[in-house]
Structure formats: structure tokens, C-alpha cells
Specification:
Layout: H1 43-55, H2 57-67, H3 76-85, H4 89-106, H5 133-163, H6 171-181, H7 187-203
Amino acid sequence: MTDTATTTVPVPTHPINLGGPAAAAPAVGTARGRRNAVSGVPRWADLAARATVWTTVPSGLWRVVLGLGLPVGFSGELAATTDRYTPGWGTVYVVLLSALAEAVALLTLGLVRPWGEVVPRWVPLIGGRTVHPLAAIVPAALGSAALTWVGMSSLFGGWASAMSSPEAPHGTAGLIMTLCYLPLVAWGPLVAAVTVAYARRTLGRR
């Protein structure tokens, strides 16, 4: 009998990449993950940062309605003042105020996004540079402290005192105004929580 020759076939020790370069491991923030979130950001911090953006939306919309000259429940001298400047310069003021508040709230996303650690390249002069952690932590901490103080002061007495004025909105109008401004109470604490997560992540790498 003739011995049968045995051919040894090499077995790859690593998985074969059938897809080429395009089949590389997905980056952080796929459709199933947290979109654009920095690697290492806790899910709760990402959700808190997103929630921060929404805390300013209801009050901003309420001010826009006021700026358009629609009745929101004011009476007496307050109503006369509102009617005097809206629509008009008062409209510009409340719209800009709402846009500014929303822009400040959006900055919180920088604490969980890449542009909070590396300046985007399109920014003149400093584009592409690494953000020093304290350059983000200090303003965010001070801002969160101020917002928390204002929110707590309003929650425990300030808002009730203002709404007790005979010229302030009452009934359904007062309830709507209160519900629109109530989310602002959470603004400061949310920023504080996201700031702590950012500090732990970035300072730990230095």
C-alpha cells in the first residue's frame, strides 16, 4: 500500500477580517451607543448633560410667547409695560435672552463631548489645542454654584413671593408659567454632576 501524503494547512491565530479596512471596530457613539460621547464618559453623565440642555427650553418658549405680545396672565402695570414693548424691542430682548440661556446650557455638552477636551480645528488661533481641564472645570463649577443658589432661592420662597403679586399671572396662566420655569431648578445640580464626572475623567489622566 502507498502511504497517503498529508498536507498541513496553516490555521490563522487571529480572526480573518473579511471586510478590509471598512470593517474596523466602531468608534464611540454608534447608532446603538451614545452619539459623539467621549470614551469613558459614564452613561448617567451623558444623560445629565443632555437633560441640562432641555432645562432652559420651556422658560425660553414662554418668554418668546410673551415677546410676541400674546397674553400670559399679567395685569395692571405689568401688563401695561408688556404691551408697551411687545411686540417691539421687548421681543428682541426676550428672544436674545432665551437664546443666550440655551447657548450657555449647550456648553454643558462640552463636558461629555470631544470638543470639551480638544478645541475644534475651525476655531481661530487655538483650534486643535488640548483644553486644560481646569479651564472647563472652574467656570462650570462656578456657574453650577450660581445656578443652584438662584434655583434653590426661587424654589424656597422667592418664586412664591413674586407670584403672590396681584399683577402676576394666576390660575391656569400662573400654573403654566410656574411649570415652564420649574425645570431651571435642576439646571445647576445637573451641571455640577456633569462637572464632577468631567473632573474625575480628565484630571485622572494628568
